[in-house]
């Protein structure tokens, strides 16, 4: 592969990663605002429709204040990043377990993974012939537009 092609592919990969990160950050900010509003609504309903500063402060950043207290009254960028990353990955892990856990016991087994794969395969194998063909893939979303399968998601080849 020529050097210019490699550089172009690296740039495309980097641009995709940056775009995905920007989307995730916007989505995370929106979820944070929704969570804040839910906490404020709850605090107001718990206290008859009005809240004091102390109630407001408690509803706003209780977890952040706990992190500061747990770290001797000061929180470094590294400590905060570690806590945020851990919380993010714990949420992701809970979603994955919930999606795959067929017994509802909060654990993930090889049988759970295989069972989930069989369900997804069966959904994609629209003609039930035991094979997934490119035309059976959705035109968009998670399984669509995968160039490695040779399609543009619309039944045509990628140019």
Global outline: elongated
Rg, Å, rounded: 23 Å
Write down the oligomeric state: single chain
Q: Give the tally of structural domains.
A: 3
Overview features:
disordered C terminus, EF_Hand_1_Ca_BS, 3 domains, EF-hand domain-containing protein, EF_hand_dom, mainly alpha, elongated
Question: Any overview of this molecule?
Answer:
The chain has five helices and no strands. The protein is mostly helical. Residues 150-159 have low confidence and may be disordered. Residues 1-24 form the signal peptide. Pfam families: EF-hand_5. Residues 118-137 form the EF-hand domain. Keywords: Signal.
Concise overview:
It comes from Mesorhizobium cantuariense. This protein has 159 residues and is mainly α. The chain has helices spanning 3-46, 53-60, 62-70, 77-100, 110-124.
Secondary structure blueprint with pairings:
Elements: H1 3-46, H2 53-60, H3 62-70, H4 77-100, H5 110-124
